[in-house]
Amino acid sequence: MPAFSLDHFDLYSAHHVPESYTWPSSYLHDHPSAGDGGGGGDSIPIIDISSPTAVSLIGAACRSFGVFYATGHGVPVDLLDDVEHQARRLFALPLHQKLDTARRPGFISGYGRPPLSAFFPKLMWSEGFTIAGGHRRDVAGDIWPLEQAVFCDVIEKYNKMMKEMAGKLLNLMLLSLGIDQEEAGRAGLIRDLQEAMEVLQLNSYPACPEPEKGIGMAAHTDSGLLTILYQSRGVNGLQILHKEDEFGPTRWVTLPPLPGALVIHVGDLLQILSNDQFKSVRHRAVVSRAEHRLSAAYIIGPPGHVKMGPISKLMQYGQNPIYRSVTWPEYLEIRAQLFDKALELIKLPIK
Ligand SMILES: C=C1C[C@]23C[C@@]1(O)CC[C@H]2[C@@]12CCC[C@@](C)(C(=O)O1)[C@H]2[C@@H]3C(=O)O
Ligand SMILES: O=C(O)CCC(=O)C(=O)O
Ligand SMILES: [Fe+2]
Protein backbone atom coordinates (compact mmCIF):
# COMPACT_ATOMS: atom_id res chain seq x y z
CA MET A 1 0.00 0.00 0.00
CA PRO A 2 1.26 3.51 -0.73
CA ALA A 3 2.18 5.62 2.28
CA PHE A 4 -0.22 8.36 1.14
CA SER A 5 -3.02 8.74 -1.30
CA LEU A 6 -4.26 11.56 -3.46
CA ASP A 7 -7.79 12.63 -2.66
CA HIS A 8 -10.30 11.17 -5.04
CA PHE A 9 -11.30 14.35 -6.79
CA ASP A 10 -10.92 13.57 -10.48
CA LEU A 11 -9.27 16.56 -12.18
CA TYR A 12 -9.92 15.07 -15.62
CA SER A 13 -13.72 15.22 -15.36
CA ALA A 14 -14.08 18.29 -13.12
CA HIS A 15 -16.81 20.89 -13.81
CA HIS A 16 -15.68 23.26 -11.09
CA VAL A 17 -12.61 24.06 -9.02
CA PRO A 18 -13.15 22.97 -5.41
CA GLU A 19 -12.02 25.10 -2.46
CA SER A 20 -8.97 22.89 -1.87
CA TYR A 21 -7.69 23.75 -5.38
CA THR A 22 -8.64 27.46 -5.28
CA TRP A 23 -5.57 29.65 -4.75
CA PRO A 24 -5.82 33.17 -3.32
CA SER A 25 -5.86 35.67 -6.17
CA SER A 26 -3.17 37.60 -4.29
CA TYR A 27 -0.87 34.62 -4.87
CA LEU A 28 -1.82 34.09 -8.51
CA HIS A 29 -1.61 37.76 -9.44
CA ASP A 30 1.34 38.78 -7.33
CA HIS A 31 3.00 40.21 -10.44
CA PRO A 32 1.46 41.53 -13.66
CA SER A 33 1.74 39.53 -16.87
CA ALA A 34 3.66 40.96 -19.80
CA GLY A 35 1.18 41.78 -22.57
CA ASP A 36 -2.37 40.54 -22.94
CA GLY A 37 -2.89 37.02 -21.68
CA GLY A 38 0.57 36.83 -20.19
CA GLY A 39 2.48 37.04 -23.47
CA GLY A 40 5.92 38.48 -23.94
CA GLY A 41 7.68 35.17 -24.63
CA ASP A 42 9.03 36.63 -27.85
CA SER A 43 11.74 38.36 -25.80
CA ILE A 44 13.19 35.02 -24.63
CA PRO A 45 16.28 34.11 -26.70
CA ILE A 46 16.04 31.21 -29.16
CA ILE A 47 19.56 29.80 -29.51
CA ASP A 48 20.90 27.29 -32.00
CA ILE A 49 23.24 25.46 -29.64
CA SER A 50 25.19 23.93 -32.54
CA SER A 51 26.18 27.36 -33.86
CA PRO A 52 29.58 29.00 -33.20
CA THR A 53 27.79 32.00 -31.67
CA ALA A 54 26.09 29.81 -29.04
CA VAL A 55 28.57 30.48 -26.21
CA SER A 56 28.08 34.23 -26.05
CA LEU A 57 24.32 34.04 -26.66
CA ILE A 58 23.90 31.44 -23.92
CA GLY A 59 26.00 33.51 -21.52
CA ALA A 60 23.84 36.58 -22.16
CA ALA A 61 20.59 34.60 -21.80
CA CYS A 62 21.67 32.96 -18.52
CA ARG A 63 22.67 36.33 -17.08
CA SER A 64 19.54 38.25 -18.01
CA PHE A 65 16.75 35.64 -18.10
CA GLY A 66 18.05 32.42 -16.55
CA VAL A 67 16.23 30.69 -19.39
CA PHE A 68 16.36 30.25 -23.17
CA TYR A 69 14.96 28.10 -25.97
CA ALA A 70 17.48 25.64 -27.46
CA THR A 71 17.29 24.56 -31.10
CA GLY A 72 19.91 22.60 -33.06
CA HIS A 73 20.03 20.09 -30.17
CA GLY A 74 19.75 16.96 -32.29
CA VAL A 75 16.99 15.31 -30.23
CA PRO A 76 14.69 13.70 -32.83
CA VAL A 77 11.11 14.99 -32.91
CA ASP A 78 9.94 11.36 -33.00
CA LEU A 79 11.54 10.75 -29.61
CA LEU A 80 9.84 13.83 -28.15
CA ASP A 81 6.54 12.53 -29.56
CA ASP A 82 7.18 9.10 -28.04
CA VAL A 83 7.87 10.60 -24.58
CA GLU A 84 4.66 12.61 -24.76
CA HIS A 85 2.68 9.58 -25.94
CA GLN A 86 4.04 7.40 -23.12
CA ALA A 87 3.37 10.10 -20.54
CA ARG A 88 -0.23 10.45 -21.77
CA ARG A 89 -0.74 6.70 -21.48
CA LEU A 90 0.75 6.67 -18.00
CA PHE A 91 -1.49 9.44 -16.69
CA ALA A 92 -4.54 7.89 -18.40
CA LEU A 93 -4.25 4.78 -16.18
CA PRO A 94 -6.84 4.36 -13.41
CA LEU A 95 -5.88 6.19 -10.19
CA HIS A 96 -5.57 2.99 -8.14
CA GLN A 97 -3.00 1.68 -10.62
CA LYS A 98 -0.98 4.91 -10.51
CA LEU A 99 -1.14 4.88 -6.72
CA ASP A 100 0.63 1.52 -6.74
CA THR A 101 3.77 3.50 -7.57
CA ALA A 102 3.09 6.46 -5.25
CA ARG A 103 6.27 8.14 -4.02
CA ARG A 104 7.11 6.79 -0.58
CA PRO A 105 8.58 8.98 2.17
CA GLY A 106 12.33 9.43 1.67
CA PHE A 107 12.23 8.39 -2.00
CA ILE A 108 12.59 10.60 -5.07
CA SER A 109 10.89 8.42 -7.67
CA GLY A 110 7.20 7.75 -7.92
CA TYR A 111 3.73 9.01 -8.76
CA GLY A 112 2.10 11.89 -6.90
CA ARG A 113 2.21 15.57 -6.29
CA PRO A 114 5.60 17.20 -6.83
CA PRO A 115 7.47 17.66 -3.53
CA LEU A 116 6.99 21.46 -3.53
CA SER A 117 3.27 20.81 -2.93
CA ALA A 118 4.12 20.28 0.75
CA PHE A 119 4.84 24.01 1.14
CA PHE A 120 1.39 25.23 0.07
CA PRO A 121 -1.99 24.99 1.75
CA LYS A 122 -3.77 24.61 -1.61
CA LEU A 123 -3.49 21.78 -4.12
CA MET A 124 -2.03 22.18 -7.59
CA TRP A 125 -4.07 21.28 -10.70
CA SER A 126 -1.69 18.57 -11.84
CA GLU A 127 -0.26 15.17 -11.21
CA GLY A 128 3.32 14.06 -11.66
CA PHE A 129 5.55 11.06 -12.04
CA THR A 130 9.17 11.39 -10.97
CA ILE A 131 11.83 9.07 -12.31
CA ALA A 132 15.27 9.32 -10.71
CA GLY A 133 18.16 7.84 -12.70
CA GLY A 134 18.64 4.16 -12.13
CA HIS A 135 15.22 3.45 -10.65
CA ARG A 136 13.19 3.58 -13.80
CA ARG A 137 12.28 -0.08 -14.16
CA ASP A 138 11.65 -0.44 -10.42
CA VAL A 139 9.13 2.34 -10.41
CA ALA A 140 7.26 1.60 -13.61
CA GLY A 141 7.40 -2.13 -12.99
CA ASP A 142 4.27 -2.43 -10.82
CA ILE A 143 1.82 -0.46 -12.85
CA TRP A 144 2.12 -1.78 -16.31
CA PRO A 145 2.58 -5.49 -16.17
CA LEU A 146 2.39 -5.91 -19.93
CA GLU A 147 3.59 -2.68 -21.42
CA GLN A 148 5.96 -1.12 -18.95
CA ALA A 149 8.92 -2.30 -21.03
CA VAL A 150 7.90 0.04 -23.86
CA PHE A 151 7.58 2.94 -21.43
CA CYS A 152 10.96 2.19 -19.86
CA ASP A 153 12.68 1.85 -23.23
CA VAL A 154 11.43 5.27 -24.34
CA ILE A 155 12.34 6.88 -21.01
CA GLU A 156 15.82 5.35 -21.02
CA LYS A 157 16.47 6.48 -24.58
CA TYR A 158 15.26 9.97 -23.70
CA ASN A 159 17.34 10.18 -20.51
CA LYS A 160 20.41 9.17 -22.49
CA MET A 161 19.87 11.92 -25.07
CA MET A 162 19.08 14.44 -22.33
CA LYS A 163 22.29 13.58 -20.51
CA GLU A 164 24.32 14.16 -23.68
CA MET A 165 22.54 17.42 -24.36
CA ALA A 166 22.98 18.56 -20.75
CA GLY A 167 26.71 17.85 -21.04
CA LYS A 168 26.95 20.02 -24.16
CA LEU A 169 24.92 22.78 -22.56
CA LEU A 170 26.95 22.78 -19.37
CA ASN A 171 30.12 22.99 -21.37
CA LEU A 172 28.80 25.99 -23.33
CA MET A 173 27.55 27.66 -20.16
CA LEU A 174 30.91 27.22 -18.42
CA LEU A 175 32.78 28.48 -21.49
CA SER A 176 30.61 31.59 -21.42
CA LEU A 177 31.83 32.11 -17.83
CA GLY A 178 35.43 31.75 -19.02
CA ILE A 179 35.83 28.24 -17.56
CA ASP A 180 37.32 25.61 -19.87
CA GLN A 181 36.95 21.85 -19.45
CA GLU A 182 40.20 21.45 -17.56
CA GLU A 183 39.24 24.00 -14.93
CA ALA A 184 35.76 22.51 -14.73
CA GLY A 185 37.38 19.13 -14.04
CA ARG A 186 39.63 20.62 -11.35
CA ALA A 187 36.58 22.17 -9.71
CA GLY A 188 35.17 18.65 -9.33
CA LEU A 189 32.61 19.33 -12.02
CA ILE A 190 31.04 16.82 -14.31
CA ARG A 191 33.97 15.38 -16.22
CA ASP A 192 32.38 12.01 -16.40
CA LEU A 193 28.72 12.70 -16.95
CA GLN A 194 27.87 9.05 -16.54
CA GLU A 195 27.86 9.62 -12.80
CA ALA A 196 25.66 12.69 -12.82
CA MET A 197 22.41 12.53 -10.85
CA GLU A 198 19.39 12.95 -13.09
CA VAL A 199 15.67 13.27 -12.49
CA LEU A 200 12.89 13.18 -15.07
CA GLN A 201 9.69 14.83 -13.87
CA LEU A 202 6.64 14.06 -16.03
CA ASN A 203 3.80 16.53 -15.41
CA SER A 204 0.16 16.32 -16.47
CA TYR A 205 -2.10 19.38 -16.29
CA PRO A 206 -5.71 18.49 -17.09
CA ALA A 207 -7.94 21.18 -18.66
CA CYS A 208 -9.32 23.31 -15.83
CA PRO A 209 -12.92 24.65 -15.93
CA GLU A 210 -11.92 27.81 -14.01
CA PRO A 211 -8.23 28.37 -14.86
CA GLU A 212 -8.17 31.75 -13.14
CA LYS A 213 -8.65 30.02 -9.77
CA GLY A 214 -6.02 27.30 -10.00
CA ILE A 215 -2.34 26.77 -10.65
CA GLY A 216 -0.70 23.80 -12.38
CA MET A 217 2.62 24.15 -10.64
CA ALA A 218 3.38 26.85 -8.07
CA ALA A 219 6.29 29.26 -8.55
CA HIS A 220 9.70 27.76 -7.84
CA THR A 221 13.25 27.43 -9.05
CA ASP A 222 14.70 24.03 -9.95
CA SER A 223 17.49 22.96 -7.66
CA GLY A 224 19.90 21.19 -10.06
CA LEU A 225 22.50 22.64 -12.41
CA LEU A 226 20.13 22.95 -15.33
CA THR A 227 16.76 21.69 -16.52
CA ILE A 228 15.75 20.73 -20.06
CA LEU A 229 12.00 21.14 -20.41
CA TYR A 230 9.77 19.64 -23.10
CA GLN A 231 6.26 21.08 -23.35
CA SER A 232 3.43 19.47 -25.32
CA ARG A 233 2.48 21.30 -28.49
CA GLY A 234 -0.15 23.97 -28.83
CA VAL A 235 -0.89 24.73 -25.16
CA ASN A 236 0.67 27.57 -23.19
CA GLY A 237 1.44 27.02 -19.53
CA LEU A 238 5.05 27.78 -18.62
CA GLN A 239 5.73 31.28 -17.26
CA ILE A 240 8.93 32.79 -15.90
CA LEU A 241 9.29 35.73 -13.56
CA HIS A 242 11.38 38.38 -15.27
CA LYS A 243 12.55 41.89 -14.52
CA GLU A 244 13.22 43.72 -17.77
CA ASP A 245 15.52 46.31 -16.29
CA GLU A 246 16.65 47.46 -12.90
CA PHE A 247 13.81 49.95 -12.50
CA GLY A 248 11.06 48.15 -14.42
CA PRO A 249 8.39 45.89 -12.89
CA THR A 250 8.86 42.18 -12.37
CA ARG A 251 6.47 40.35 -14.69
CA TRP A 252 5.26 36.86 -15.53
CA VAL A 253 6.31 36.08 -19.09
CA THR A 254 4.75 33.13 -20.95
CA LEU A 255 7.04 30.77 -22.88
CA PRO A 256 4.81 29.11 -25.49
CA PRO A 257 5.94 25.72 -26.77
CA LEU A 258 7.95 26.28 -29.97
CA PRO A 259 8.08 23.36 -32.43
CA GLY A 260 11.32 21.42 -32.02
CA ALA A 261 12.71 23.75 -29.35
CA LEU A 262 13.45 22.73 -25.75
CA VAL A 263 13.45 25.19 -22.85
CA ILE A 264 16.62 25.41 -20.75
CA HIS A 265 16.41 26.66 -17.14
CA VAL A 266 19.35 27.72 -15.00
CA GLY A 267 19.02 25.86 -11.68
CA ASP A 268 20.12 26.85 -8.16
CA LEU A 269 23.38 24.86 -8.30
CA LEU A 270 24.46 26.76 -11.41
CA GLN A 271 23.66 30.03 -9.68
CA ILE A 272 25.92 28.89 -6.82
CA LEU A 273 28.67 27.71 -9.14
CA SER A 274 28.63 30.95 -11.14
CA ASN A 275 28.66 32.99 -7.93
CA ASP A 276 25.42 34.73 -8.94
CA GLN A 277 26.54 35.58 -12.48
CA PHE A 278 23.72 33.31 -13.68
CA LYS A 279 20.35 33.47 -11.91
CA SER A 280 18.22 30.40 -11.40
CA VAL A 281 14.90 31.22 -13.00
CA ARG A 282 11.68 31.38 -11.00
CA HIS A 283 8.92 29.75 -13.01
CA ARG A 284 5.43 28.26 -12.72
CA ALA A 285 2.82 26.49 -14.86
CA VAL A 286 -0.65 27.91 -15.35
CA VAL A 287 -3.55 25.80 -16.62
CA SER A 288 -5.77 25.97 -19.69
CA ARG A 289 -9.59 25.96 -19.84
CA ALA A 290 -9.77 23.71 -22.88
CA GLU A 291 -6.54 21.78 -23.23
CA HIS A 292 -4.78 19.03 -21.36
CA ARG A 293 -1.07 19.94 -21.21
CA LEU A 294 1.98 17.76 -20.54
CA SER A 295 5.55 18.59 -19.77
CA ALA A 296 8.73 16.65 -19.08
CA ALA A 297 11.45 18.34 -17.01
CA TYR A 298 14.87 16.67 -17.11
CA ILE A 299 16.83 18.01 -14.13
CA ILE A 300 20.55 17.23 -13.88
CA GLY A 301 23.00 17.74 -11.06
CA PRO A 302 26.51 16.59 -10.20
CA PRO A 303 27.26 13.11 -8.81
CA GLY A 304 25.91 12.89 -5.26
CA HIS A 305 29.30 13.16 -3.54
CA VAL A 306 30.52 16.26 -5.45
CA LYS A 307 30.47 19.54 -3.51
CA MET A 308 29.30 22.52 -5.55
CA GLY A 309 30.58 25.96 -4.64
CA PRO A 310 31.50 29.10 -6.55
CA ILE A 311 34.28 28.22 -9.04
CA SER A 312 37.51 29.68 -7.73
CA LYS A 313 38.59 31.01 -11.16
CA LEU A 314 35.65 33.42 -10.94
CA MET A 315 37.10 34.95 -7.78
CA GLN A 316 40.24 36.13 -9.52
CA TYR A 317 39.04 39.71 -9.89
CA GLY A 318 38.64 40.30 -6.18
CA GLN A 319 35.11 38.91 -5.82
CA ASN A 320 34.29 36.90 -2.72
CA PRO A 321 32.43 33.61 -2.85
CA ILE A 322 28.76 34.21 -2.08
CA TYR A 323 27.88 30.62 -1.16
CA ARG A 324 29.39 27.77 0.78
CA SER A 325 29.82 24.45 -1.02
CA VAL A 326 27.12 21.80 -0.87
CA THR A 327 26.41 18.48 -2.54
CA TRP A 328 23.11 18.22 -4.40
CA PRO A 329 21.66 15.78 -1.81
CA GLU A 330 22.64 18.22 1.00
CA TYR A 331 21.02 21.05 -0.89
CA LEU A 332 17.84 19.01 -1.52
CA GLU A 333 17.71 18.32 2.20
CA ILE A 334 17.85 22.07 2.94
CA ARG A 335 15.19 22.71 0.27
CA ALA A 336 12.98 20.05 1.82
CA GLN A 337 12.98 22.15 5.01
CA LEU A 338 13.10 25.70 3.67
CA PHE A 339 12.00 25.50 0.03
CA ASP A 340 12.81 28.83 -1.69
CA LYS A 341 14.80 30.21 1.27
CA ALA A 342 17.44 27.50 0.75
CA LEU A 343 19.86 29.65 -1.28
CA GLU A 344 19.79 32.29 1.45
CA LEU A 345 20.71 29.71 4.06
CA ILE A 346 23.91 28.66 2.35
CA LYS A 347 25.13 32.24 1.80
CA LEU A 348 28.46 33.03 3.45
CA PRO A 349 28.70 36.08 5.69
CA ILE A 350 29.69 39.16 3.66
CA LYS A 351 33.39 39.97 4.11
C1 LIG B 1 15.65 15.65 -7.09
C2 LIG B 1 14.56 16.39 -7.05
C3 LIG B 1 14.45 17.73 -7.66
C4 LIG B 1 12.99 18.10 -7.40
C5 LIG B 1 12.72 17.41 -6.09
C6 LIG B 1 13.28 16.03 -6.39
O1 LIG B 1 13.44 15.27 -5.22
C7 LIG B 1 12.38 15.28 -7.36
C8 LIG B 1 11.57 16.18 -8.30
C9 LIG B 1 12.10 17.56 -8.54
C10 LIG B 1 10.97 18.58 -8.64
C11 LIG B 1 10.25 18.61 -9.98
C12 LIG B 1 9.13 19.66 -9.91
C13 LIG B 1 9.58 20.99 -9.29
C14 LIG B 1 10.40 20.72 -8.00
C15 LIG B 1 10.72 22.03 -7.26
C16 LIG B 1 9.68 19.72 -7.14
O2 LIG B 1 8.91 19.94 -6.24
O3 LIG B 1 10.04 18.46 -7.53
C17 LIG B 1 11.62 19.91 -8.39
C18 LIG B 1 12.64 19.60 -7.28
C19 LIG B 1 13.89 20.49 -7.32
O4 LIG B 1 14.33 20.92 -8.38
O5 LIG B 1 14.41 20.71 -6.21
O1 LIG C 1 5.15 22.29 -16.83
C1 LIG C 1 5.99 23.20 -16.88
O2 LIG C 1 6.07 23.97 -17.83
C2 LIG C 1 6.93 23.43 -15.72
C3 LIG C 1 7.31 22.17 -15.00
C4 LIG C 1 8.36 22.43 -13.98
O3 LIG C 1 8.67 23.55 -13.66
C5 LIG C 1 9.06 21.31 -13.33
O4 LIG C 1 8.68 20.13 -13.55
O5 LIG C 1 10.02 21.58 -12.58
FE1 LIG D 1 10.53 23.59 -12.51
UniProtKB/TrEMBL annotation:
Record's keyword annotation contains Glycoprotein: no
Superkingdom classification of source: Eukaryota
Keyword annotations from UniProtKB, A to Z: Iron, Metal-binding, Oxidoreductase
UniProt GO MF annotations: metal ion binding; oxidoreductase activity
UniProt cofactor(s): L-ascorbate
PANTHER family: 2-OXOGLUTARATE (2OG) AND FE(II)-DEPENDENT OXYGENASE SUPERFAMILY PROTEIN-RELATED
Name of the protein in its database record: Fe2OG dioxygenase domain-containing protein
Species of origin: Dendrobium nobile (Orchid)
